[in-house]
Amino acid sequence: MSLCVLGVESSCDETAVAVVRRGDDGAVEVLSSVIHSQVVKHAVYGGVVPEIAARSHVETIDDLARLALAEAAEKGVGVDAIDAVAATAGPGLIGGVMVGLSFAKGFALSRGLPLIGVNHLEGHALSVRLTHDVPFPFLLLLVSGGHCQLLHVRGVGDYERLGTTIDDAAGEAFDKIAKTLGLGYPGGPALEAEAAKGDAARFTLPRALLGRKDCDFSYSGLKTAAAKIAMEQVKTPQDRADLCASVQAAIARQLVERSARAMRAFKAEHGGDSPAFVVAGGVAANKTVRSELSALAQKEGFEFVAPPLAYCTDNAAMIALAGLERFALMRAAADYDGDKQVHDG
Ligand code: KG4
Ligand code: ZN
């Protein structure tokens, strides 16, 4: 059955609204996906300021929703065609989450629609299905500023966490080291640009958790080591570029080492066909990270899949899709139980 969901995301420094439809044939269509980035508002502080973020969500969410609805209407899907509203209910900065969720609740109430609270990580986990017909189960590496996890995605609502960071997320490591080196915020893209001019073999950095028999990550030792080198040995622009290249290589190496372990565990359970290895989150934008993970996937017999960048970083289309998939399951269960209220919409 065809379903159309309005999605809202506001858990960090992006306000986003989207309309996503899944047709009778199961094909997913993003009818609109609008995003307002607050990055310039936070850049001067070198990181996201929760109070500023929440206020900015309040200022922009109405206009973004109007825009998202207008774009969907231009494609022939008016507001009356929306079946449900989905919003990020956590984890995230609570002030921002409350703005998006309250907006979604008001919208749903006023139109008599169901509201589905979505876990932000579930949005990332399923985001690949906005553009790729990836079947369950698949292996997911989620690498963003807030998260660094390996997930075994068995189905909608059925996730096993194979590993997570025991301190910083990979994106956070990029951002904090970039800040130490005076590269501004967000640091990931700036550090990558510097790294392109440097020699990755110049500095030896610690290889955290090497040999540990799990799939966890750790980046705080790298951060401390990089700060020490920055203070003691970085005197010229070339030194800084070399340190950036060495840091980027170290982050990529740990992502590869831990993903390799997860791939072997996944294969042990599912056998030898060519399952998907999906990489999502802002760090997936990094070319070195991407190419090394892609090479690993090829070596281990996985198909490397990375959603387009717009769906890798925070967006509302992934929240709409996660809500849609959950709503479809709820509706199917209600049909089965003969629940007329949900069945009749
Ligand atoms: O997924 P995302 O937009 O937001 C969340 O954290 O949920 O990811 C943002 C993170 C930031 O830490 C940013 O520095 C990092 O992704 N990032 C990068 C690159 N582009 C974004 N890190 C390394 N290289 C990049 N090119
Ligand atoms: Zn995110």
Automatic annotation (TrEMBL):
Into which EC class is this enzyme placed? Answer: transferase
Instruction: Provide the cofactor note recorded for this chain's UniProt entry.
Output: Binds 1 Fe(2+) ion per subunit.
Which cofactors does the annotated protein need, by name? Fe(2+)
Keyword presence, tRNA processing: yes
Enzyme Commission number(s) from the entry = 2.3.1.234
Q: Which UniProt keywords apply?
A: Acyltransferase, Cytoplasm, Iron, Metal-binding, Transferase, tRNA processing
Record has tRNA processing as a keyword: yes
The molecular function terms in GO held by this entry are: tRNA N(6)-L-threonylcarbamoyladenine synthase activity
| Residues annotated as binding Fe cation | 120, 124, 314
Gene3D superfamilies noted in UniProt: 3.30.420.40
Binding residue positions for substrate? 142-146, 175, 188, 192, 286
Per the database record, which ranges form the Gcp-like domain?
Answer: 29-320
Pfam families documented for this protein: TsaD (PF00814)
As its record notes, the protein acts as a catalyst of: L-threonylcarbamoyladenylate + adenosine(37) in tRNA = N(6)-L-threonylcarbamoyladenosine(37) in tRNA + AMP + H(+)
Location of this chain's protein in the cell: Cytoplasm
UniProt cross-references to PANTHER family, sorted A to Z: TRNA N6-ADENOSINE THREONYLCARBAMOYLTRANSFERASE, TRNA N6-ADENOSINE THREONYLCARBAMOYLTRANSFERASE, MITOCHONDRIAL
Question: What is the role of this chain?
Answer: Required for the formation of a threonylcarbamoyl group on adenosine at position 37 (t(6)A37) in tRNAs that read codons beginning with adenine. Is involved in the transfer of the threonylcarbamoyl moiety of threonylcarbamoyl-AMP (TC-AMP) to the N6 group of A37, together with TsaE and TsaB. TsaD likely plays a direct catalytic role in this reaction.
Q: Which family does it belong to?
A: Belongs to the KAE1 / TsaD family.
What is this protein's name? tRNA N6-adenosine threonylcarbamoyltransferase
Gene source species:
Asticcacaulis currens
Q: What is the lineage of its organism?
A: Bacteria, Pseudomonadati, Pseudomonadota, Alphaproteobacteria, Caulobacterales
Gene that encodes the chain:
tsaD
